[in-house]
Amino acid sequence: MKGDLERGKIESDIRRIMCNEAGKEIRLRAKEFKERAGLCLEEGGASCQSLEELVVSGNQFSY
């Protein structure tokens, strides 16, 4: 019984995401998030800069 309820919920959520206007907005936001995350990981991006700063500060304590 519980599995049937979960399947029904999953199915309705997937239909909502794939088939209606609210789903279009969800997909658009997911795409934007993916693009922003990619920028952070590129050379010169926020994550890359943070890692470089960590290495530089770590080198200051090297012997």
Q: Tell me the helix content.
A: over 70%
Q: Mean pLDDT, nearest integer?
A: 85
If you compute it from the alpha carbons, what radius of gyration comes out, rounded to the nearest whole angstrom? 21 Å
Strand pairing plus helix content: what structural class?
mainly alpha
Distance between the termini: 65 Å
Biggest beta sheet summary: none
Whole-number count of domains? 1
Low-confidence residue ranges: none
Tally the helices: what do you get? 3
> Could you tell me the number of beta strands?
0
Share of β-strand residues? under 5%
Keywords: Transferase
GO molecular function: transferase activity
Protein name: UDP-glucuronosyl/UDP-glucosyltransferase
Fold and architecture overview:
There is one protein chain. The protein has 63 residues and is mostly helical. It contains 3 helices and no strands. The chain has helices at residues 2-19, 21-41, 46-60. The longest helix is centred in the middle third of the chain and has 21 residues, at 21-41. The model has no long low-confidence stretch (mean pLDDT 85).
